Each structure stands twice: as C-alpha cells, then as structure tokens.
Amino acid sequence: MNIRKLLEGVKKGRISIDSAMEDLKSFPYKDIGIARIDTHRMLRRGFPEVIFGMGKTPGQLLKILEGHEEKDQPVLITRCPEKTFQMIREKYPGARYHPEAEAVTMGKKLRKRGASYILVITAGTSDIKVAEEAALTAEMMGNRVERIFDVGVAGLHRLFGVREKILKAAVLIVVAGMEGALPSVVSGISDAPVIAVPTSVGYGASFSGIAPLLGMLNSCSSGVVVVNIDNGFGAGYAASLMNRKKK
C-alpha cells in the first residue's frame, strides 16, 4: 500500500475517508499466505523489509516479490543461491546478482547522504564474502562505502599503512575469523563506532566462529559492538543507522 498516494488522494478529495479507512485495515502488513509482508518498514526504519533468501524456494521468493507493492523502492535479498537468482531474473530482468555477497538487488539504492563513509575492513581474504554482504547492505541503504581487505594482525604493519583512511571513516565494520583480534586493534586507533563481525573462518579450535565471537565480546578496547557469526547484513544495517545519525 502506498500510504503517501492514499493520503494525497484523501487530501484532494479523490478518496473518501471511509474508503481510506477500509484500505488501512490491512496496514501495516500484507498477508500473502506464506508470508506477512511488512509494508510499514520503510516508514518506521527508513528502508524496506529485506528478504532472507536461505531456505525459501524460488516460488516462495517470487510470491514475496510480487507482494512488494512499492516498485520504486530498493529490494535486497540476502543469502540467495545463484540458481534461485536465475529463476528470479526470468520474471524480473532488472534484478542483479552479487556473487561476492550472495545477494540479489532490485530497484534503486537510496540516495546517498553527505560525504561521510562507512569503512569495511577484513582481517583476511577468506572474510570477504561476509564483508561484501555488509558493504552491499550499507550501499543499498544510501551510504558511501569504502573497503580495505586483508590487513589482519598477522601482519599488523599492513593496517597502519591505511591508518589515514580508517581515521576518516564515520563508522567501521571490522570482519575477522580465527581469534578475532582485529576489531580491538582498530578500535584502539579510532574514535568512530566499531562493529565487529566474527566469521566462521578458522581452524578446528575456532569452533566455526565461536572463538572470534567470544574474543570480540571480550574486547579490551571499549565501545566495540558485536553482531552474530557471519552476520554481514546485520553489521551493514547497524552501520547505516549509525551513519544516518551523523548527517
């Protein structure tokens, strides 16, 4: 439901108050059987509902996409296999697949606001997939995003080679597996918010991301906030909300 068009119709007398009240009965979500689409999300949060692709069949995703009435709004589908994307593209030729983030986007990104940027940093190349999910999410939400890859603590001099870029960032997303030490180091040299993202990258004792998660939660540098294992989307979303408050 396009609330703005509805209100404009009432204001101009094209839609009666009784008719508008009837339309608003389904507000703020649309029940399509397999899902209840949150049509109010854009108004509440500033970005439409994001679709989690994992575990959904192509048919279910297509039905959910059909239920999104605001065609001019950006659409983001996370954790979407490429085979599923091929079926989506048959119906929506404008859909774009981002293999590095395993995500699908449609429509336009939100208009960028201001000159500040979110910086996404990875400890290693193996962390890039999660980092790209974070970066793509933040970009779709209208942020300028910069990236720095492979500057982990095993070669700390690499990090200080990009120190100036780190110091200019409005929000930092730091993605690391293994022992998860990098967010603490980055937080120790910057006054910007640091969002730590543990990844499931590592040898056996990393317990598929539990070790870096616990390391980040126990960071000795104050103010580091932590999202769940491999949750690049959550980090990108949180960073966008933080960056918006700086405008």
Please give a structural write-up.
- The chain is an alpha/beta fold and 247 residues long.
- It folds into 2 domains: 31-106, no CATH class; 117-245, Rossmann fold.
- It contains 11 helices and 11 strands.
- A 5-stranded parallel β-sheet has the order 8-7-9-10-11. It has a 4-stranded mixed β-sheet with strand order 3-4-6-5, with helices on both faces. Strands 1-2 form a two-stranded antiparallel ribbon.
- Strand 1 (29-31) and strand 2 (36-38) form a beta hairpin.
**Tally the helices: what do you get?**
11
Q: What structural class should be given to the helix and strand makeup?
A: alpha/beta
Q: Globular, elongated, flat, extended or rod-shaped: what is the shape?
A: globular
CATH classification class of the largest domain: Alpha Beta
Adjacency order of strands in the biggest sheet: 8-7-9-10-11
Would you summarize the structure shown here?
This protein has 247 residues and is α/β, with parallel strands linked by helices.
What's the structural blueprint in terms of helices and strands?
Blueprint: H1 3-11, H2 17-23, E1 29-31, E2 36-38, H3 41-45, E3 51-52, H4 58-67, E4 75-78, H5 82-91, E5 96-98, E6 103-106, E7 117-122, H6 128-140, E8 144-148, H7 157-160, H8 163-168, E9 171-176, H9 182-187, E10 194-198, H10 210-217, E11 224-226, H11 232-245
Task: Pick out its properties.
single chain; 247 residues; alpha/beta; Rossmann fold; 2 domains; 5-stranded parallel sheet; 4-stranded mixed sheet; 11 helices; globular
